[in-house]
Amino acid sequence: MKWNAVKIxxxxxxxxxxxxxxxxxxxxxxxxxxVAKEGGMGVISAAQIGYDDPDFRKDPExxxxxxxxxxxxxxxxxxxxxxxxxxxxxxxTQLYGDYVRVCAEAGADAIISGAGLPSHxxxxxxxGDICLAPIxxxxxxxxxxxxxxxxxxxxxxxxxxxxxxLAGGHLGFSQEELEQALxxxxxxxxxxxxxxxxxFAEKYGRRIPVxxxxxxxxxxxxxHQIDIGCDGVQVGSRFVATEECDASPEYxxxxxxxxxxxxxxxxxxxxxxxxxxxxxxxxxxxxxxEKISWCFNCLKACNPKTADYCITQALIxxxxxxxxxxxxxxxxxxxxxxxITTVKELMKELAGTI
Length: 354
Fold this sequence. Notes:
Distance between the termini: 10 Å
Structural class: alpha/beta
Shape: globular
Strand content: 15-25%
Helix content: 25-40%
């Protein structure tokens, strides 16, 4: 399959593949830079990106913003000027506006924002040239966000990411929908979102590329999404099992050894469901949760007095390789991953050229 280059703002993606943003620490500069080097969009997750900074516990916000600048700069170096470098930023992040401003100042090409509606993203990025993309999961969410941006900020999205029910991490679906994800006719929802996109593209006289995410595993999956009308795809879980992924070897091995029966749905402290690998941590949460001994003040909607667990600590334990006590978010097709590859080889595989 020959890729069709996609223009986003002043940038051109020669390979229309976005590497999904995965936190904490799973997609930082090494992975994002390698993907961009191959002509795709490498994505740094801003979620507690400074978790390994010596001052993280004392001042997590300062550590995170400092690390975000450093990882954007390093990813740019690794990319050798190819592709695009983006940042995935959750809408429920504390100090959301500060993160947006740092992304723009540090030279990120784009911000992709979900885990809630990024209704005010343009407000914080109004003085920069950075491209903005909301993550949407339904026709309704796409219409609400694009109408809000149009009405309040007189602008539209530079591109859209449609995140389906087979994706990992925080998801815009109910637990029941996720448990029945394989039986959902999500193609029709994608077509509805594309029609919403078309109306705003016409109004602004510009093309708004769309990338679909969730369950994208092979070149056949990529072709299917492009046949529906998408411009490209976003892929998360498959990039975990690459040499360049920033996670520990133990984290990657958990993916390789996982089977379909090892996948569970867990509720985030912010109330959103997510798909993760079943382990002792998941079982403890299902039995009533864990006491939170330290709050990192990371998410707006999280109340440490009532939350079942600390998502920051669980994700840090995971990225460091604690396979029993960490939270390992994953996509629905993680059980099909069987080996470690490289970013270059994975990009070729997704294109169907190997």
